[in-house]
Write a structure and sequence with these properties.
The protein is of the alpha/beta class. It has two domains: about 70 residues; about 200 residues, Orthogonal Bundle (Arc Repressor Mutant, subunit A), CATH 1.10.10. It is built from 13 helices and eight strands.
Length: about 280
């Protein structure tokens, strides 16, 4: 994959997200494929072709992965997943994670100075799930987030607010090569680990570390994560930590859903979360 391929997928994704939002708003009436296509301002034929180009399967197959029934079934199937990972000695730092992620957490002293002396290079790039902002340091990736249309500057402002004392500079060439590796297909994906630099409390870092044990195509609940880190009653705090995950996709917070099977919570939008989960359930990417 290259920027041209990702640009087409990013453009396709805008229509896919529009369709998913329509399904979210009208799921009780079970909209037909014609109605879903119309919501994206496309004929059924063109909508079907768009979907096949974006994800490789039909819209009907894809939407099946987004049903509440499917989510509940996957939750039940993956209920003991984290414990099994731990027993097998595979849970840290991410031998089960398909993208092989390792990370360093900032020390309390580093946290306190808010990135003083740190140089952060950033770039905006297309992905299969819309545009992203990736930021990296010599110690690893410190941010990966998706960008809504027209909100580049607001997204960059937020990055600078999170690292107020760091030197933040544009570095599209370097960040572009990293994005291409992250979203490359399985056939071309390198096995060199992605290294992250994370800034968070001990609790937050423990939650983010736990997320790395969730394999592609699997989902767990907030309660599962809370139990896994030894705080079974702190699932609301776990949800809060997940909501602050600074590195989307690589730290797969999209794989955590409500115990009811609902998939509405996601820092970068519930439609995008469903798109990524459907993509992974279909075995794409």
């Amino acid at each position: 994959m290259n920027d041209r391929d990702f640009s087409q997928q990013a453009e396709d994704y805008r229509r896919i997200e529009q369709a998913i939002r329509f399904v979210e708003a009208n799921f009780r009436s079970q909209p037909t494929l014609d109605e879903i296509a119309k919501s994206a301002h496309l004929s059924k034929f063109h909508f079907h072709r768009l979907f096949k180009r974006w994800v490789g399967i039909s819209p009907v197959q894809f939407m099946q992965y987004l049903t509440l029934e499917y989510s509940k079934r996957r939750l039940a199937e993956c209920a003991s997943l984290l414990d099994t990972s731990l027993d097998a000695g595979l849970s840290g730092p991410s031998r089960l994670h398909d993208l092989f992620v390792t990370f360093d957490a900032m020390t309390p002293g580093e946290f306190k100075v808010l990135g003083a002396g740190l140089k952060i290079g950033y770039g905006f790039h297309p992905t299969p799930f819309g545009e992203c902002l990736l930021a990296t340091t010599r110690r690893g990736i410190c941010h990966l987030g998706f960008v809504d249309d027209g909100k580049r500057q607001a997204t960059l402002d937020q990055l600078e607010q999170e690292w107020p004392e760091a030197l933040v500079v544009e570095d599209n060439t370097n960040t572009g090569s990293i994005v291409n590796r992250i979203f490359a297909s399985e056939k071309t994906k390198a096995t060199v680990p992605f290294h992250l630099l994370l800034k968070g409390t001990n609790f937050q870092v423990n939650v983010w570390r736990a997320l790395l044990a969730i394999p592609r195509g699997s989902v767990v609940s907030y309660q599962d994560i809370a139990a896994h880190i030894g705080h079974p009653k702190s699932f609301r705090a776990v949800a809060g930590a997940i909501a602050l995950n600074p590195v989307s996709y690589l730290i797969p917070c999209h794989r955590v859903i409500a115990k009811s099977g609902e998939t509405h919570r996601y820092r970068w939008g519930s439609a995008r979360k469903k798109a990524i989960l459907g993509w992974e359930a279909a075995g794409i990417g």
